[in-house]
Design a protein that fits this description.
Layout: E1 2-4, E2 8-10, H1 27-31, E3 34-36, E4 39-43, E5 49-52, H2 54-67, H3 75-88, E6 100-109, E7 121-131, E8 142-147, H4 164-179, E9 184-188, E10 196-199, E11 203-208, E12 213-217, H5 226-237, E13 241-245, H6 249-258, E14 263-268, E15 272-281, E16 284-287, H7 295-308, E17 319-321
Parallel strand pairs: 8-9, 8-15, 12-13
Antiparallel strand pairs: 1-2, 1-7, 3-6, 4-5, 4-6, 5-17, 6-7, 9-10, 11-12, 11-14, 14-15, 15-16
The structure holds 4'-deoxy-4'-aminopyridoxal-5'-phosphate.
Length: 323
């Protein structure tokens, strides 16, 4: 679907996958005026296909658009684009447990203009790709690298938006994590370099089983994850107290070493829930629960998977069947 400031949204169409032609002066290529979402279509046991909290993705997309001076995409247009693509590609929604059709809605500035100002023309597009189970043989605790040099999001910046520029800025830290033998990078807050923000593409939870309390970094500069939000509700309903706080790296290290911190997990649409085993810093490693996947981590993971794949009662109205 195209957008022009004077015309609004126009020319919606579904077309075969292929290259997009852009003017070399298209402002997205120079100033990165671009946003996206990541979501999945799930196959149900009866052969049907559905989505998990798609309106939450639509709302976050518009929040990102606002931050990036881009037009709002009406929720019904967003939903319609997803319904149309999934119905065309329905045979590509995998049937294996934990597999899904990954959906990537995105919008970018197409106006050919080299001055620095918000563009007047945009393209909204949606592509899809089958995604296998994230883990071949059950979730394996990941090792994560603490980025001391790079931060992801400063107050007043674009951390809460899902825009390509955030990920561009995170690549050097991700490369550093890989060089240090880690799967993921964890970012600290940009002001004090003390509090934990999030991973490159996942939010974090810290479980204290003896207190029945779970901590998670509060919203502000991090991406408001839809999986994060679901976990806060599900854990609360399961009798845990969930506190959204400033959680420091020092506390993480001390409580992991003392054993008070019993589980840490990361969550997001791609991996659902991933146990965190070892944390690596330039001056040494520390490990949570002998790097074993924890009980609550695995329980919440199963609860979420069952909901997403339409196998559990949907008491929250999160599941939306399409076919
Ligand atoms: N943080 C970042 C930086 C991400 O890219 C993602 C993935 N969208 C998340 C957190 C998790 O968000 P969600 O649960 O909505 O996938």
């Amino acid at each position: 679907i195209k957008y022009h400031v004077d015309k609004g949204w126009y020319e919606p169409q579904v077309e075969p996958y292929g290259p997009i032609t852009l003017d070399p002066a298209a402002s997205v290529l120079h100033y990165a005026q671009e946003i996206f979402e990541g979501m999945k279509a799930y196959r149900y046991d009866d052969g049907g296909v559905g989505l998990f909290r798609p309106e939450a993705n639509a709302r976050r997309f518009n929040a990102s658009a606002k931050r990036m001076s881009m037009p709002q995409l009406p929720v019904d247009l967003f939903m319609e684009s997803i319904k149309q693509l999934v119905s065309v590609d329905k045979d590509w929604v995998p049937t294996q447990a934990e597999a899904s059709l990954y959906l990537r809605p995105f919008m970018f500035a197409t106006e050919a203009f080299l001055g620095v100002r918000p563009a007047k023309e945009f393209l909204y597009t949606l592509i899809a790709s089958p995604a296998g189970a994230y883990f071949a043989s059950g979730p394996k605790p990941v090792t994560i690298w603490v980025s001391r040099e790079y931060t992801r999001a400063a107050p007043g910046g674009t951390g809460t938006a899902k825009c390509g520029g955030n990920y561009a800025a995170s690549l050097a830290a991700q490369a550093e994590a890989i060089e240090n033998g880690c799967d993921q990078v964890v970012f600290l807050d940009a002001v004090e370099r003390k509090y934990v923000d999030e991973l490159g593409g996942m939010n974090l939870f810290f479980v204290y089983e003896n207190d029945q309390v779970i901590y998670t970094p509060k919203l502000g500069t991090i991406l408001p994850g839809i999986t994060r939000d679901a976990i806060i509700s599900l854990a609360g309903e399961a009798g845990w107290e969930v506190r959204e706080v400033d959680y420091s790296l020092d506390r993480w290290r001390e409580d992991a070493n003392s054993g008070a911190l019993t589980e840490v997990f990361a969550c997001g649409t791609a991996a659902v829930i991933t146990p965190v085993g070892t944390v690596r810093e330039a001056d040494g490693d520390f490990t949570i629960s002998k790097a074993q996947a924890g009980k609550l981590t695995m329980q919440l993971r199963q609860t979420l998977l069952d909901l997403q794949h339409g196998r559990a009662e949907d008491r929250h109205g999160w599941v939306q069947r399409l076919l």
